[in-house]
Amino acid sequence: MAARKHIAVIGLGQFGGALAHVLAEDAEVLAIDIDQNRVDDMVEEVQRAICLDAGDLDALRSVVNSDFDEAIVSTGGTMETSILATLHLKEIGLPVIRAKALSEVHGTILSMVGADEVIFPERETAQRIALKISKPNLLDFVPLEGEYMVRDMVLPKACVGHTLVELDLRNCLDLFVIAVRRETEPRFLFLPGPDFTVEEGDIMVTIGRNADMVVAEEASSLPICPIR
User: Fold this and answer.
1) pLDDT, position 49
2) Residue 177 is inside which H or E element, if any?
3) pLDDT tens sequence across 77-129
4) Which of 37, 46, 177, 202 fits a 20 to 30 Å CA distance from 141?
5) What's the rounded Cα separation, in Å, for the pair 110 and 56?
């Protein structure tokens, strides 16, 4: 089982609060906001919630350090606070910084001061962002009836160079590949045959049970079937 990520969420408005709540299911979340009422609302939702001004470097450094896996800046109001928070997080040494932008210009500035990813909330939901952060091998998902889901998945490197019949995902993990996205191809390849050979970067659109998806996601290498 992979270690739980340590993530700081700065700004607990509608988007940031929802993001922190979802992330706390799979990660250790530090929620930060300058509004004490918002912090109080999150105390029971995350592992730790603190009221402070993220635009103050010393205050931010007192609770966030480079040991955190990443941070998400989701402050509202003026652009200045989110820009300062992003700049401070970069100075502190956060390996990954994601920041919510209010406009294209805002997003450009955030990238310039250190944001690794700029988020436009109107384009992406908090749940999708949280899933991408906490489960990076699962690129997209569509819930189906009951416990079944359709998910985009990048297979472990051990699978590269092997055919689908060699991997035998249906018998190994109860997963069925219904399509493949390949960077060099303009369209999806639907219902790939058993002789289809996996290349690095291939995105497999799979259908299966959620529990089996988790097993595939957490595997550092996928054994060739049969599993013994």
Assistant:
1) 97
2) strand 176-181
3) 778 899 999 999 999 999 999 999 988 889 999 999 999 999 887 666 666 66
4) 46
5) 17
Q: Which two tokens stand for residue 64?
A: 């966030």
Task: Report which of 97, 103, 38 is spatially closest to residue 72, judged by C-alpha positions.
Answer: 97
> Quick one: CA dihedral 147, 151, 155, 161, positive or negative?
positive
Domain residue spans in the chain?
Answer: 6-133, 137-218
**What's the N-to-C CA distance of the chain in angstroms?**
20
CB neighbours (10 Å) of residue 110? Answer: 27
3-state secondary structure of 119: strand
pLDDT beyond 80 at 14: yes
Apex 110 CA angle, 79 and 82, nearest 5: 35
Find, among 219, 42, 217, 201, the residue nearest to 132 by Cα.
Answer: 217
**CATH class of the domain whose range is 137-218:** alpha beta
